[in-house]
Amino acid sequence: MSRRLRSGLSAVLIALSCLLVPLGALSAWVAYGLADTGRYVTTVTPLAGDPDVREAIADTVGDAIVAQIRPGTDARLLSGMVVPFVHDAVRSFTQTAAFRTVWTEGNRAAHDAVLRALRQDDGARDQPVTVDLAPVAAHVKARLTEDNMPLADRIPVTHTEVALVPAEDLGRLRTGYHVLQLAGFWLPVGAVVFAASGIALAVHRRRAVTATALGTALGGALLALTVTVGRRLTLAGLPDDVSPPAAGAVYDALTATLRTTAWVLIALGLTAAALTWLVRRRAGRPHPPGPHPPSPRRRPRLPLRRRRRGSAAQSPAQPQQPTRVKA
């Protein structure tokens, strides 16, 4: 395989991996976070102490109780004393431990009902998913009776059902739920496989690792942006009878895991990119030349003539023999 083809395939695989990062995180959050009753109840249980949520519940339950005792009651008495007293009693009830128990069990029952409706695939006619407010009304009636509230005994504890999911939306939601169940597992696996394959095929693997890390950080930023935009769109599309602060508190509690995942992806991506850049820079820096070992010292050699003269000078002089003339 040529180097150009390998580089092209590596870039495509890394781009797909970075694109699947936010999608995989979102689908895994739906499949393993929202679809799990235990985790859902653990997430929404602290909302029983949120002031906005308690105020919204007090208004909803108080209006339902007043609507039950309105027929046959003097309008001046109802508006002057009964309505404020009922709302105050419900608001006081939301600050008790009994309300926290009712809140937890009500959310558990509502979540189970929604999951049963989404997982139902037997061809039966869809029915709206509702939650019953009768337990809350019973606790409020008992509290009002203890306080000697007039007309408290006339409050009927009926099964007041609040629709959670309309019947006409169940088909679309059921299809999306099944798709997200599959995507919650395969999209994260696909992101990891594509990233590993892209790095393995790359000609310059350090550059491929840096690109993958930066793409992961970019996917985390895109996920955080999606959560923020989704919050604004959700609050903008609320009905008039739903409290925006309470809905915002519920949205923030449910998406806390997504926000944490987004920041973790950003931090891991930037850290991996920085480490790869530092390693690459250190590897490309030229090494300074080391000190040369000292060469062995050689004894200076005297010239040959000089040595001969010196040897001649040191040798004893031989006596000259007399010549024939002297003899």
TrEMBL record:
Chain ranges passing through the membrane: 183-203, 210-230, 260-279
Keyword match Transmembrane helix: yes
Keywords: Membrane, Transmembrane, Transmembrane helix
UniProt entry tagged with the keyword Membrane: yes
Residues covered by region (Disordered): 283-327
Recorded superkingdom: Bacteria
Compositional bias annotation for Low complexity: 311-327
Ranges of Basic residues composition bias in the record: 295-310
Name listed for the protein in its UniProt record: Integral membrane protein
Organism: Streptomyces thermoviolaceus subsp. thermoviolaceus
